[in-house]
Design goal:
The structure holds two protein chains of two kinds. Chain A is of the alpha/beta class. Helix content of chain A is 38%, strand content 27%. The longest helix of chain A has 27 residues, at 294-320. Chain B is 77% helix and 2% strand. Chain B is built from eleven helices and two strands. Chain B has helices at residues 3-23, 25-28, 30-51, 59-89, 93-97, 103-129, 140-164, 170-188, 197-203, 207-220, 227-250; strands spanning 53-54, 57-58. Classes of the chains: A alpha/beta, B mainly alpha. The A-B interface holds A 15-16, 50, 53-57, 74-76, 78-79, 81, 83, 85, 87-93, 98, 101-103, 105-110, 150 and B 1-2, 4-6, 8-9, 11-13, 16, 19, 23, 86-87, 90-92, 94-102, 252, 256-257.
Chain lengths: 321, 257
């Protein structure tokens, strides 16, 4: 059996102030996967990736990259990793080309190989024209693309992206998605990302792990996760405003405004029943759409359940004490 | 990493450091030249002519080695302290931390960068001094050796300072309150033979005194202290501080949470 691209066992991180960011998590990411690590702020996503990239020291546990134990040979393991952090972490006063060439140098890449590679990546990411400019003159989206180019200079087999499209406009986000899809598909690069945009995970990733309070509460495929989705909310735009909330037997209906209804649909319920009920009350529907992306509903529900369980455990502990 | 890859990584880092201080030359190379010119004019020419001889040499000849050494010390130290701390502050140190570069290469890269600036400024100050006096070097190899070792030692010191620093103020405290007083009291402007016995003893505790004196010995052939002993002390400090800096880097002190 092929070694996973990334294997994490019993990973624990306790910060100096006593905060336990990771509580012994296990995680496997297969080679060639497009994997998302999801979770609310402070859940432990960035800490997990920080340990994998050697930016954070683990308290316990084991991390292997393509079977290489990082405690034994981190240098060899690091060759396989390209890292795009959440915050800009390059010298803003350096030239764009110098930043990517220096990174290649740190990996021991000779300049005769680094120059064409830099040109290829900067052209692909639309930064070639800016190569001789100072990095601080770039827009936010360009700076983010610069970090992607820098991370790919040494041709890593795993690309780790921490919130890659945070603060990036929609058009640029789509083009970055397309680029990531391309390197995953054409070059077989394993991609691991954390994101707040669940639409991003749903659209790009094949597998996801949901992390909350330092524990992985779910680790499965996006497809599997979506089949478990019990409810979806549909928005109905009405031809004419309604004064009161229409009654649709078996459905929970809410009024967004006088011309729009939000209807919660459980699995197994038929949309036709909604149209029939509205038609019988003389209400004409102009258009209909899904309110939130589906994964978001699932994610919110899982995190809420996790938080409730944690609150309950804390309350039980308090009572016992 | 293979030896060739390590050489490429080290050269990349050293070159980057040299590019950094040459890019901002009005902040890094110009000020020491102007300051030292002032010292030569005021202390060497104007006041020095009234002081007379010091250890058998004109005052100008006496202070030239000390002033060159003073600029090497302060520039080596401050180059690494400010460059490494800027890398920490801007988080660009992460570029190196995620790479397979061994920590000793990272440390050596910054130290060599600091030495390049310290020695570069030393050369500039030496050239400036030629406008005021005629320099003769009694022991050229010793002179070069001791200035290189001193630049290395203070570059490592600057690195440790930057590792421990949490804010920009922290990298100016040591140069202002420790390095400058020790340099001024390290026999740059006077021979410790002028001091009363007690203060001569106190001066012997100042490590910079040894560096300045050995360097002056290289130029003039006279020293307040035994040269061999001083060289051994400098080498010892380098080994100990390099080990300490590497140990701190391996433990992620100041850079890993």
């Amino acid at each position: 059996m092929a070694e996973p691209a990334l294997s994490i066992r019993g990973l624990t991180k306790v910060y100096g102030n006593g905060f336990q960011a990771l509580k012994g998590i296990d995680l496997d990411v297969a080679e060639g996967d497009f994997f998302a690590l999801l979770g609310p702020n402070g859940a432990g996503k960035s800490t997990t990736l920080g340990v994998v990239c050697s930016l954070v020291q683990k308290s316990a546990g084991k991390v292997s990259i393509f079977g290489i134990d990082v405690d034994r040979d981190f240098a060899r393991a690091k060759y396989h990793l390209g890292v795009v952090p959440q915050e800009f972490n390059f010298n803003q006063f350096e030239k764009v080309i110098d930043i990517v060439l220096a990174q290649a140098g740190y990996y021991g890449m000779p300049r005769r190989e680094a120059l064409p590679r830099a040109e290829e990546l900067l052209r692909d990411l639309g930064l070639w024209d800016k190569r001789n400019g100072s990095a601080r003159m770039l827009s936010g989206g360009m700076k983010r693309r610069l970090m992607i180019a820098r991370a790919l200079m040494h041709r890593p087999r795993i690309l780790i992206l921490d919130e890659p499209t945070a603060g990036v406009d929609i058009e640029l986000r789509r083009s970055m998605w397309e680029y990531m899809r391309r390197i995953n598909r054409d070059e077989g690069t394993t991609i691991i990302l954390t994101t707040h945009y669940l639409e991003e995970a749903e659209s790009l990733c094949r597998n996801v792990a949901i992390i909350n309070h330092g524990d992985i509460i779910r680790n499965t495929s996006v497809r599997e996760l979506l089949t478990e989705l019990d409810t979806e909310t549909f928005l109905f735009d009405l031809a004419r405003p309604v004064d009161s909330l229409p009654d649709i037997a078996g459905f929970e209906v809410n009024q967004v405004d006088s011309s729009q209804l939000a209807v919660l649909v459980h699995r197994g319920q038929r949309l036709n029943d909604i149209f029939t009920a509205l038609g019988e009350q003389g209400i004409e529907v102009v258009s209909m759409r899904n309110r939130a992306n589906r994964l978001e509903e699932m994610f919110v529900s899982m995190v809420e359940q996790g938080n409730e369980a944690l609150d309950k455990a804390a309350a039980d502990k308090e009572v016992r004490a | 990493m293979s030896p060739m890859q390590i050489a490429i990584a080290l050269w990349t880092l050293v070159l980057k450091e040299i590019k950094r201080f040459t890019r901002i030359w009005p902040q890094t190379l110009l000020p020491p030249s102007i300051t030292m010119t002032m010292y030569f004019i005021i202390f060497g020419s104007l006041i020095g002519s009234r002081i007379g001889e010091m250890d058998g040499f004109t005052y100008m000849d006496f202070i030239v080695p000390g002033l060159i050494m003073m600029s090497v010390i302060t520039n080596s130290y401050s180059n690494v302290a400010s460059s490494f701390f800027s890398n920490k502050f801007q988080r660009s140190i992460e570029e190196m931390m995620v790479s397979p570069m061994p920590n000793w290469v990272i440390l050596s890269g910054f130290v060599l960068g600091g030495m390049a600036r310290g020695l570069g400024v030393g050369v500039i100050v030496t050239i400036v001094s030629l406008f005021f006096t005629r320099i003769s070097v009694a022991h050229p190899m010793l002179t070069i050796g001791v200035v290189v070792l001193t630049a290395a030692l203070f570059s490592i010191g600057g690195f440790i300072n930057a590792l421990l620093a949490n804010k920009f103020d922290d990298i100016s405290i040591v140069p202002t309150f420790i390095l400058t007083p020790l340099t001024y009291l390290g026999g740059v402007f006077y021979s410790i033979s002028l001091l009363p016995g007690f203060w001569q003893g106190v001066s012997m505790l100042n490590p910079i005194l040894y560096m300045v004196n050995v360097f002056r010995y290289g130029f003039l052939g006279v020293s307040d202290i035994p040269v061999g002993w001083a060289l051994a002390a400098i080498l010892g400090f380098i080994v100990v501080l390099f080990g300490l800096a590497l140990w701190m880097l391996d433990r992620g002190k100041g850079i890993r949470s």
